[in-house]
Sequence to fold (59 residues):
Amino acid sequence: MNLLMVIFGLIAILSLVSAFKSIKNKNILALIFGVASFAIFGWFVVMTVLNQGYPPVLH
Fold:
């Protein structure tokens, strides 16, 4: 789960970058998908860190 959080965090950061680039290019569909993927992956990372801590607690 530790590596998965890092990968999902990178995906969230890259989707935010793509959302800003889509604003520059005036591409509405890419903006919607970029913001949506940032929200989903970012929420997953934040809630996983809050629930398990970082590094995750192994039971």
